[in-house]
Amino acid sequence: MHRTRSGLVRSLDTGLPTVGLAEGLVQSWPLLGTGQRAPVIAAVRRRLAATLDVGVQLSARPKLAGRAQLVELLRLLDAGCESELELWGYRAVFDRPEFQHACWQLPIRTPGPLPHRPRLRG
Predict the structure, then answer these.
(1) Is residue 65 part of a domain?
(2) Nearest Cα to 81, choosing from 55, 51, 101?
(3) Per the domain annotation, does 115 fall within a domain?
(4) All residues at 6 or more sequence positions from 90 whose CB lies less than 8 Å from its CB, including other chains
(5) Confidence band, pLDDT 50/70/90 cuts, at residue 89
(6) Quick one: which of 12, 43, 66, 121 has the most CB atoms within 10 Å?
(7) What are the backbone dihedrals phi and psi of residue 27, each rounded to the nearest 5 degrees, phi first?
(8) pLDDT tier at 74 (50, 70, 90 boundaries)?
């Protein structure tokens, strides 16, 4: 990919105009029907796209079909949800006053890669 001075992204292989991932996620949102959340969830979970970038692209399309659902999905992803199961649990199970103080999804940092452990045979 190559970004031109005008901001247009072009494929180096074909020279055809393309869009960035965040913009592509927003543009494809109304086209994907029932599976529309999966690409957004996967892109954010894999850190290929940030919710902020998707939100910026979304703000440029105030009349996007299904906009409210995408806004809600971005809010839940920002809260730390990384899968459909976590989305469901966050809304259906943990959306209660007694959990308002809870800290969700604490990252644990290690100084390097985890040591390899041989598999036990049995």
Answers:
(1) yes
(2) 51
(3) no
(4) 76, 79, 81, 104
(5) confident
(6) 43
(7) -65, -35
(8) very high
Tell me the DSSP string of 33-97.
Answer: GGGTHHHHHHHHHTTSS-HHHHHHHHHT-TT-TTHHHHHHHHHHHHTT--SHHHHHHHHHTS-SG
Query: Is residue 58 in a domain?
Result: yes
49 lies in some domain: yes
Question: What are the tokens at 35?
Answer: 């599976």
Q: What is the pLDDT of residues 26-65, one digit of tens each?
A: 988 988 877 789 999 999 999 999 999 999 999 999 999 9
Domain span at 32? 21-99
Q: What's the number of domains the chain is made of? A: 1
Taking CA atoms, 19 is separated from 10, 35, 73, 89, in Å, by 8, 21, 21, 33
Give the number of residues written for the chain.
122
- Tokens for 58? 């979304």
